[in-house]
Automatic annotation (TrEMBL):
SUPFAM superfamilies: HRDC-like, Ribonuclease H-like. GO terms for molecular function: 3'-5' exonuclease activity; nucleic acid binding; nucleotide binding. GO terms for biological process: nucleobase-containing compound metabolic process. It comes from Candidatus Planktophila sulfonica. The lineage of its organism: Bacteria, Bacillati, Actinomycetota, Actinomycetes, Candidatus Nanopelagicales. Transmembrane segments: none annotated. This is Ribonuclease D. Residues 21-191 form the 3'-5' exonuclease domain.
Amino acid sequence: MSEVEELPTAIPLLHPAEGVPAIIDTEEAFDAALAQLASGTGPYAFDAERASGYKYSARAYLIQIKRTGGGLHLIDPIPFGPGHRCFVALNALIQDVEVILHASTQDLPCLREVGIFPNILFDTELGGRIAGLPRVGLGPLLETLMSVSLAKEHSAVDWSTRPLPHDWLNYAALDVELLVELRDKVYQLLVDAKKSKWAEEDFASIIAAPPAPPRVDPWRRTSGMHKVKKRNHMAVIREIWQARNELAQELDVSPSRLLSDLAITEIALASDKGPITNRKHLEKILRPLGLRARWLENAATWISCITDAIAMPEDQWPEARSKTDAMPPIKIWRERFPEKYAPLTHARFNLQVRAEELSIPLENMISPELVRRICWQPPTSSVHEALLAMGARRWQAEIASPILELALTETEPLEVAEPEAEVTPTE
């Protein structure tokens, strides 16, 4: 990783320089903020707070904006709603101006939901990764590049709470207080490392990326599924997961608050060991997990799901593995697909070497998924064009394609230490 000049001890950032602004929850206040923002100069720093772990939806419950000369503003989006004229006006303001976000893929969906669609992006987290910094959270970046420490004590609170406490608003305001200055620091690192064009391509690709398609059989991602081998157990998991998801969506509650994934798995594994017909049976199964009262509020629904799954004919049970065009797990390539495993070992090793030379994480230099796909099904023409067709940026394809082309000629595996086990999609 690139060396960064040692800085003095970080100074805690306790509050915004101009104080915590009043929350914007009326059209009059929103219009005034828009006028102030329009009078500013340079990029807009954005952040958003969601109620992850509390709510089903990923909507924004607070939006923070700061612009040089345009003030710092905290907008409560709930009184306005998606597509409100004030959000339309805000979106018009940012169309030809850079928007700064930290970890943009987390906040862009909820910003777009209300009608904010940036055209020009600078992501300080991704920029830090490409620059070669080892720690790229907002706090570590501020410490490393600006000698400022940022408290994170309110990062996991329920932002749907109203009214929002002053301490929470102060915390939220600090997330954008120095974001413009941080952007400039990260940008200079990228320029010095001759990586600014790489970052620009990556930022543009985030803006242009279509929404992710719905997952196939999302219930298969239930935590603990690796312990489930029987298809009748899978049927129980599927029925409970789907019922929980529908109820959580209806109530706008995080599914895990209604019933945890681990609880679903344990219920499934116990479903053919004896009847589960009432609340007491469920209590007995769930008590070792640290039973929570809310898990049993919908006991009748869970029992109905179990009953339906048990009564289901075998031909309606889920398949052991979903039908997919996904590649086989890497762990079986050596024995069953040696002609594909050999190139993969060379590709992995030499790409890692190149990533270290360039001071960039391998996964940012080229997606490991694309490397596996190239080795699994080598293109009949250009590796470079194949990578571009699969979504790689041009700079990534230029670096990776010569290494992959050479790896595809190898017939004997490279005996090197295996990397940590990769997560293989289950859907």
